[in-house]
């Protein structure tokens, strides 16, 4: 009798794991994608400033704040 109960509990636990694992994985994946998107947006917001400074110095025009 005890072994049947143990098997039943083990099966239920396996089912719970089987159902919750994809949910957790999807949640983590969404969080990572969301985080990556925020990082990308921040980088894009700062890119014109950095790009402008590097382009002007490449053209021989000193960037603002440069010692030249």
Would you kindly provide a written description of the structure presented here, covering whatever features stand out?
The protein is mostly helical and 68 residues long. It has 1 helix and no strands. The relative contact order is 0.06.
Can you summarize this structure?
This protein is an all-alpha fold and 68 residues long.
- As an assembly, this protein is single chain
| First and last CA, distance | 87 Å
Q: Regions with pLDDT < 50 over 5+ consecutive residues?
A: none
Estimated radius of gyration: 27 Å
Main sheet makeup? none
Total helical segments:
1
Strand content: under 5%
How does the helix and strand content classify structurally?
mainly alpha
- The pLDDT mean sits at 69
What is the helix fraction of residues, given as a range?
A: over 70%
What is the ordering of alpha helices and beta strands?
H
Q: Can you tell me the overall shape?
A: rod-shaped
- Strand count: 0
Explain the layout of strands and helices.
Elements: H1 2-58
Which keywords apply here?
mainly alpha
């Amino acid at each position: 009798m005890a072994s049947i109960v143990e098997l039943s509990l083990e099966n239920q636990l396996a089912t719970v794991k089987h159902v919750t694992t994809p949910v957790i994985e999807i949640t983590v994946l969404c969080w990572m994608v969301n985080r990556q998107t925020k990082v990308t947006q921040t980088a894009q917001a700062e890119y014109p400033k950095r790009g402008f400074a590097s382009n002007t110095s490449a053209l021989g025009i000193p960037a603002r704040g440069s010692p030249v």
